[in-house]
Specification:
471 residues; alpha/beta; Glutaredoxin; 3 domains; Glutathione transferase; glutathione transferase activity; Glutathione_S-Trfase; Thioredoxin-like_sf; Glutathione-S-Trfase_C_sf
Amino acid sequence: MGCNSSKSANEAVAAPTAAPKGTKEITLYVNGLSPFARTTMMVAQTTVGVNVKYVEVDLLKGEQNEEWYLKLNPKHTVPVLVDGDKVLTESVDISKYLIDNYGKCKDANPTGEKAEQVEAIVKYVYGTLASIVPKIVLPILIHGKPEDVTDEDFEAAKIHGYEYFNNQLGDKEFLTGDKPTWADFLVFSLLMQMDIHPKTDKGQHDKLKQWAKRIHALPFFPTVHKTFLALKNQMSKAHNPTPMLYVNIASPLARAVLCTADELGIEYETTHLDFMKREHKSEEYLKVNENGTIPGLKHGDKCIGQSRDIARYLVEKFSPASSLFAIDNQEEINELLKFDEEKCFQAAIKIVGPLLGGKEIPDENREFVKSVKLEAQEKLGEKQFFGGDKVCIADFFIFNNLIQTVIDPKHDHENPAEDLAVLRQYVQRMMAIEHVAKKVGEFKETMAKVAQMMKEKREAEAAEKSEEEEL
């Protein structure tokens, strides 16, 4: 399918772009902020044998009220489809028309029982949801004031939007089965409008979140929703505080969370917590993380104190389609995170714990670490990363916990174990990621300083004890 776009609706009408020779062209008048327009744009992306030309109608400038547009649509709304002499002004009619006449997959506008399901969904959307969502969106779009949205309206939107469709999904991948229909596009585009509210959180609606990730994963998603996503990011920066990560680079779990944030490319702030000064046990920090462990996250009113939950949250909040926690691999990634928590993190503790206590590392601790590395290598197999061809959040945790063990004084950097050759190559691939290598370097520098401080402390204590004995 070919597609053109135009920023000026007037110019587009006066001088339409020629379609490729032999390919029919139709024109779709849209605005990227309209959920109904985006619905038809998603449908248009599934067409074949026709060149769809998009004309952006600037609603803020009032182009929908200009004479040239009113000739197309006296109701001055978007979208509008022009196919030769045929003009359609309702998104429902446009979606069905595109699928029935040019759709690559007719299942997107099904027949029979599924057609009845689609009609029921559409009836609910226009009869209930379409009148609720604007009460959430318009105060923010027009006045930039989310505080003008009443609690009653916000709660109604969650009940009739998130909760209703979470229940509708059941065990299905999409609203009517294992394939998306244009009803999925409609519901998604409308629910997406609610995302610009700073307090929007799909919470425990897990089925809805998984469904949304499937829509996000469609290849044309970024193109269709580009304008709205830009607005959403702008609103998010204006009304959502930047995530605050409480970290210490010496912590492998903190580094894993930082790696996740950097891989996502999100903006965040950090607060360094000094272990030696026990800042992680301060009254202020315990309000963020009642366990008093590092790392911790505070994002608006949201506080999370478990590192792996923080990583999941960052992906789901800022980039739900990311391969870091890919929908198709989530079960496997969660199993890897469990392995990391039960084995890799424990391996790190068995090396770091004795060293921080000024004690020798027992041989059985080193044997445990070796067994964990062999098990990790077995899980890695022939894959590039634990998540497959691309890194996932489990990679950041497993890698950083195992890297923690190299501070063992008896770790032989010059003559690495041959039976860990596969894992060693994996470490090299991880170190090729710039932000990962940087954190490892900072970790080693920090641990070298800690080791020197502890050495000086032990020497001072020994000298003091010697003086006492002489006296």
